[in-house]
Specification:
The protein is an alpha/beta fold. It has a single domain, classed as Alpha-Beta Barrel (TIM Barrel), CATH 3.20.20. Helices cover about 45% and strands about 10% of the residues. Strands 1-2-5-6-7 form a 5-stranded parallel β-sheet, sandwiched between helices. The protein has a 3-stranded parallel β-sheet with strand order 8-9-10. A two-stranded parallel ribbon has the order 3-4. The longest helix has 24 residues. The chain is globular. The structure holds zinc ion. Zinc ion binds next to loops.
Length: about 400
C-alpha cells in the first residue's frame, strides 16, 4: 500500500521532468506460451502482499466473483494460477497512536474471513505452509494474512498473541511513519535511530510465537537491527531494489540484500512502477510539486484539485515500467545472493494505476513465468521464486517457534 506516500518537495524536479523527453515506453505485447501457463497452474504461487482487505473496506466488492476494477478477484486469480496471496491487513499511519488501529486490524481480518465464508468452495484462510500446500491440492485459493504496520499491537504482547491466533503470519513493523516499534523509510525524523526498545523486544517475541518479521517500509538502521536480533530468516513482503531507484530508501540496496542473503531471508519484489524504475518515482514527485504549486496559487479549495492526478496524467503521461524491468530486479538479487532469496510481492490493489506493462493484474503471472523462461531460469528456479523460497522461510519460522 503506497497511497499515503510522502514526497520530497524539490521544485526543480518538475522543471527537469517537464523538459525531459517524453517517456518512450516500449509497447511490447507480453503473452505467455502453453508451457508458461502450465507452470503457473501447476506451481504454488505465493504473493507476499495484496491489498484486497483495504480495497474492500474503501469500496465494497465481492471478490469471490469477477469485479470491474481492482487487480484481484477469484476468476482472475484462477486464470493467473495464483494460489496464496498474503492479504494485507493494512493500518494507516494516521492511526499509529490510537487503539483504533487495533480495531481496524480486527475488522480487516473479519473481512478476509467473510470472503472465505461467502465462498468456502473457492477460498480458505491459511495459517501454515502445510495448509497452503494442502489447500492447493484441494483446488482452494489460500488467504494467508500479513499485517502491514505493527501499530495495532499498541505495545501489548497480548495483542501479538491475539493476532497470531487470528492468523497473522507476518508483521511489517512500521508503515509510512515511525510508530512505537520502528522508524520508517519514508519518515525522515528517525525517532528511534532504528528500532524502539519495545521493537527490539518484539523481534524476539515474534521469533518465539512464529510470526515472520517483514522489513519492508522500515528505515535502513531498523533493518540492520532486526537482522542482528532475529534468530530466523526475515522477509521483505513487498520491496524492490534501490539500485534501479537511486535514493528511494523504501527499496533495498545491495548491501542490505547481501545481509538478507546471509540471514536466509527473501525479498519479494514489488511491481509498482515507482518501485521498479526511477522515472515513475520522478513522475510522482512532479505530480506532488505541481499540486503544491496549484494550492499556493489558487488555495486549498481550488476545484481543479478534484481530478488533479487525472488531468496531470493527460499533460505528463505516466511512465509505466515493464515486465522486463521487474525481471531485472529478480536477476539482480540472483546475481548478488543466489536464487534462494527472491520472491514476489506485487502490491496488487495497493499501488493504484501504476502497474507495469505485462503485469497489470493477478491474471498476469503466466507472463512473469514466460519472462523467467525467456531468461533461462529452470523450472526448479521458477518454483523457488514463485513460492519455494518464502514457504521455506515461513516453515523455518514455524519450526523455530515450535521449539520455543
Ligand atoms: Zn506497503
Amino acid at each position: 500500500m503506497t497511497r499515503r506516500f510522502p514526497l520530497s518537495s524539490c521544485a526543480l524536479v518538475v522543471a527537469a521532468l517537464l523538459s525531459a523527453p517524453a517517456f518512450a515506453t516500449e509497447q511490447k505485447n507480453y503473452s505467455a506460451s502453453e508451457q508458461a501457463i502450465a507452470i503457473a497452474k501447476e506451481t504454488i504461487i505465493v504473493d507476499g502482499h495484496i491489498d484486497v482487505p483495504y480495497r474492500v473496506k474503501e469500496k465494497w466488492v465481492d471478490v469471490t466473483k469477477a469485479t470491474e476494477g481492482g487487480d484481484f478477484d477469484y476468476p482472475r486469480a484462477v486464470k493467473g494460477g495464483l494460489n496464496a496471496p498474503f492479504m494485507s491487513i493494512y493500518v494507516p499511519a494516521s492511526l499509529d497512536n490510537s487503539p483504533e488501529s487495533t480495531q481496524l486490524a480486527h475488522e480487516l481480518i473479519d473481512s478476509v474471513e467473510a470472503i472465505v465464508a461467502r465462498a468456502p468452495d473457492k477460498f480458505a484462510i491459511a495459517k501454515s505452509p502445510s495448509e497452503v500446500k494442502a489447500q492447493f491440492e484441494k483446488g482452494l485459493i489460500s488467504l494467508p494474512m500479513g499485517m502491514e504496520n505493527g501499530s495495532p499491537l499498541q505495545g501489548d504482547l497480548a495483542n501479538l498473541e491475539a493476532f497470531y491466533e487470528r492468523g497473522i503470519r507476518y508483521i511489517t513493523l512500521a508503515h509510512s511513519q515511525a510508530n512505537h516499534i520502528s522508524d520508517s523509510s519514508y519518515d525522515l525524523r528517525r525517532k528511534w535511530k532504528g528500532l524502539s526498545p519495545f521493537g527490539k523486544t518484539l523481534v524476539t517475541e515474534m521469533n518465539n510465537i512464529g510470526i515472520m518479521l517483514d522489513i519492508s517500509h522500515v528505515s535502513d538502521d531498523a533493518f540492520y537491527q532486526v537482522i542482528e536480533l532475529t534468530k530466523v530468516p526475515v522477509i521483505a513482503s513487498h520491496s524492490s531494489l534501490r539500485r534501479f531507484t537511486p535514493g528511494f530508501e523504501r527499496n533495498m540496496n545491495d548491501e542490505m540484500i547481501k545481509k538478507l542473503g546471509e540471514n536466509g531471508g527473501v525479498v519479494m519484489i514489488n511491481f509498482g512502477s515507482s518501485f521498479v524504475s526511477k522515472q515513475a518515482g520522478q513522475w510522482r514527485t512532479g505530480l506532488t510539486n505541481a499540486k503544491k504549486a496549484l494550492i499556493e496559487k489558487e488555495g486549498e479549495d481550488s476545484p481543479k484539485l478534484a481530478n488533479f492526478e487525472e488531468e496531470y496524467r493527460k499533460t505528463v503521461p505516466y511512465p509505466y515500467s515493464t515486465l522486463d524491468e521487474v525481471l531485472d530486479h529478480i536477476d539482480h538479487v540472483v546475481e548478488l545472493v543466489g536464487i534462494e532469496h527472491v520472491g514476489i510481492g506485487s502490491d496488487y490493489d495497493g499501488v493504484g494505476d501504476s502497474l507495469p506493462i505485462g503485469l497489470k493484474d493477478v491474471a498476469s503471472f503466466p507472463n512473469l513465468v514466460q519472462g523467467l523462461l525467456d531468461r533461462d531460469y529452470t523450472r526448479a528456479d521458477i518454483e523457488k521464486i514463485l513460492s519455494g523460497n518464502v514457504l521455506r522461510v515461513w516453515q523455518q519460522v514455524e519450526t523455530y517457534a515450535a521449539s520455543h
